[in-house]
Specification:
Length: 722
């Protein structure tokens, strides 16, 4: 009996095979993060692509020989690293990996399953139970993410999940969670996103949450508070939430639900005045407190809820369910992310019925979000990071100068670039508030279909580099398609010169005063980011440098690059760093910023770069590495990790090499990366490296391979003396 990952055009599906040997692997709870051993160990066993080239064969294979001992070690390490990593690549060209981390995603799937009566297999349930217990903390609680301290968000939802999965109330581990919830005052002190699920499940009345005011969607679209102006992730989550709230959807009140009503609160359920707890939240969870403006609006909308017009409410519901169906169709029922995936699914179940074609389409895409690691089965933060990881992997391998040894690997990766680019705009994109899509690349798959600025940019860069450095390779991505990608990038530049993630920023940052999600920050509008801006600048510059494209929208590209650079310069912190909004954290943001500046010709001796290099050097540890805690993201100030991290170190030395910093500093960082490599070419999984919305971390298990290879490759290219 064994689990196997089946991949097809980016779609990743875990299947359980009864007649195969088991791949059961124990999880070290102390590590907090999975190492992706379930997939990796089987992939290496089945797909080893080792070249096994020894030093005597270097000349034959056109591999540089170095007298310098460190340089010689780097070459061996790179060959070993790429040999290992290329063995993880699947037939469609991408690299699968664990994109889990948030602990509030799996409960949404389990609750939706319970209410709509679709069943996960017993094997899947067993792995989910394993996952939840593996990440339970010693005090009985769960964090919002796997490295977080215990929160009510994580604890209440995961306690409920285990009960729905069949774990009895008297289970010893569950009793610890029960005690934790009781010590924090009961489930009414969970944040609003948790309360939403409690209401749907029937363990809290809808009076326990602030009104979601569904009629807001019917207001004139020119209003700056209209939901069409929200950041798309926020928009697409509150869309089905608003529908569910409008219809006050509640699942069947089963005996188990009645038991949960007694377990989740200190007082007796029917004696609680839930209206008094709409704004109650544990201090463990509070990251973005409600503003006075939001509190006033809540008073208004809660009052409105008792007198609303039924005809107007019905009109709002009709609009919302129509929009939900459009999002389902635009994304092939994957949806933009797992939160709205399962709330959309719940909405369709209620609106169209359990036997409807739309609900069946949703069922067919549930497994796209499941990922299995040695810690158990989880719901990922997306349907994967396929394109993102593949584009980075291509650039990392090409930087080594050894691409002639890995032509099959790179050609396969190029195929994935080709099959994942979005080739057309979604139907009625203006009606449903979508930006243009044609030419963009998504984070994951074409089926998902939401193009992103930096994903598109990394796709362009990887494509052009392959066309350039592998002249005998395929040319499936045509000039017209690359021009479409450039059109997408140019269309998404904000007024401040920067680039946001998916779309233009559609309203002012003041809209954040209305942020109802107490656990996240910066969710209301799509802000410009250093990383997205840097990627777009690099892509535009690379595209413009190609003779064939040198005159394509040249003036617009020139102006766009200049404005983007001005934005990046303005984002530099007083200490010389840049904040990273999508990974941990200042080492990541600074790497992106410096890459853009150096790309456009900024002198390494300029004040802005000198200051950045001084910042990085000041953070180097005695072992030669860099280590940054995820708390840097939360507190927005550099917080050192207890241990140096291979990924942070790789970003730091990549930056230092681009800026031609002190070679002794760089060599120490390179030596640290070498020291941390395993004999099989892998690097051990260390702390979590991704982040979103300031307060939630997410895993990128392929980063531990991509960025060390990239850093070592750049060292061979720039700092070696034959």
């Amino acid at each position: 009996m064994a689990w196997r990952l089946i991949c097809d055009r980016g779609q990743q599906i875990w299947k359980y095979f009864v007649n195969e040997n088991s791949n059961s692997i124990e999880f070290d709870k102390e590590s907090l993060n999975s190492s992706d051993k379930v997939y990796r160990e089987y992939a290496i066993e089945q797909n080893s692509k080792r070249l096994n080239i020894d030093e005597n064969q270097y000349e034959k294979f056109h591999i540089p020989l170095f007298k310098d001992e460190l340089c010689s070690s780097v070459v061996k390490s790179v060959l070993n690293g790429i040999d290992y990593y290329s063995s993880l690549q699947v037939d469609d060209g991408h690299w699968p990996g664990d994109y889990g981390g948030p602990m509030f995603l799996l409960p949404g799937a389990i609750i939706t399953s319970y209410i709509t009566k679709f069943e996960f297999s017993q094997e899947e349930k067993n792995e989910m139970i394993k996952y939840l217990f593996n990440h339970q903390l010693s005090n009985g609680g769960w964090g919002t993410h796997i490295e977080n301290k215990a929160t009510m968000f994580g604890t209440v939802l995961n306690y409920i999940s285990l009960r729905l999965l069949g774990i009895p109330f008297n289970n010893e581990q569950l009793q610890k969670a029960y005690s934790f919830i009781q010590s924090e005052g009961g489930a009414m002190y969970a944040p609003s996103w948790a309360k939403f699920w409690l209401c749907v499940l029937g363990v809290m009345p809808w009076e326990g949450v602030n009104s979601l005011f569904p009629e807001l969607w019917l207001l004139p679209e020119w209003l700056s508070v209209h939901p069409s102006r929200y950041w798309c992730h926020c928009r697409m989550v509150y869309l089905p939430m608003s529908y569910v709230y409008a219809e006050k959807i509640v699942g069947e009140i089963t005996p188990l639900i009645k038991e949960l009503r007694n377990e989740l609160y200190i007082e007796k359920y029917h004696e609680i005045d839930f209206t008094k707890h709409r704004n109650s939240i544990s201090s463990l969870d509070l990251y973005t407190p409600q503003t006075y403006l939001l509190k006033i609006l809540n008073i208004f909308t809660n009052t409105y809820e008792s007198v609303y017009n039924r005809q107007l409410r019905n009109k709002a519901s009709e609009f919302l369910i129509d929009y939900i169906q459009a999002e389902d169709e635009h994304t092939n029922y994957i949806n933009i992310g797992p939160v709205n995936k399962f709330i959309n699914m719940l909405s369709i179940w209620y609106s169209k019925g359990r036997q409807s074609q739309q609900f069946q389409q949703h069922l067919n895409r549930v497994k796209d979000y499941l990922w299995l690691s040695e810690d158990g089965m989880k719901i990922q933060g997306y349907n994967g990071s396929q394109l993102w990881d593949t584009a980075f992997s291509i650039q990392a391998i090409l930087e080594t100068g050894l691409e002639h040894l890995y032509t099959n690997c790179l050609n396969s990766a190029y195929y994935y670039l080709e099959i994942s680019q979005v080739l057309e705009d979604v139907k009625d994109h203006v009606k449903y508030y979508r930006h243009i899509s044609k030419g963009g690349w998504p984070f994951s798959t074409r089926d998902h279909g939401w193009p992103i600025t930096d994903c598109t940019s990394e796709g362009i860069k990887a494509t052009l580099l392959l066309h350039e450095q592998m002249s005998n390779g395929p040319r499936l991505i045509t000039s017209e398609r690359l021009e479409d990608a450039i059109n997408f990038i140019l269309s998404t530049q904000n007024k401040d010169g920067g680039w946001a993630s998916y779309e233009l920023q559609r309203s002012g940052s003041w809209l954040e005063w209305l942020n109802p999600a107490e656990v996240f920050q910066g969710i209301m509008v799509d802000y410009s980011y250093t990383e997205c801006t840097s990627a777009c600048i690099q892509a535009l510059w690379k595209f413009r440098s190609q003779t064939i494209y040198s005159n394509y929208r040249r003036k617009e590209i020139d102006i766009s690059i200049k404005r983007g650079i001005e934005f990046i310069k303005k984002q530099q912190k007083i200490d010389g760093s840049w904040y990273g909004s999508w990974a941990v954290c200042f080492t990541y943001g600074t790497w992106f910023a410096i890459e853009a500046l150096i790309t456009v010709g900024e002198s390494p001796k300029s004040k802005i770069i000198t200051k950045a290099i001084e910042f990085l050097i000041s953070k180097q540890n005695s072992d030669g590495g860099w280590g940054e805690s995820y708390l840097s993201c939360v507190h927005k100030t550099y917080v050192p990790h207890k241990q140096s991290q291979v990924v942070n170190t790789s970003w730091a030395v990549l930056t230092l090499m681009s800026a031609k910093a002190d070679s002794n500093i760089i060599r120490k960082g390179i030596q640290f990366i070498l020291n941390k490599q395993s004999s099989n070419g892998d690097w051990n999984q260390q702390s979590i490296s991704g982040v979103f919305n300031g307060n939630c971390m997410i895993s990128y298990t392929n980063y531990r391979n991509i960025f060390p290879i990239w850093a070592l490759g750049r060292f061979i290219k720039n700092y070696s003396t034959q």
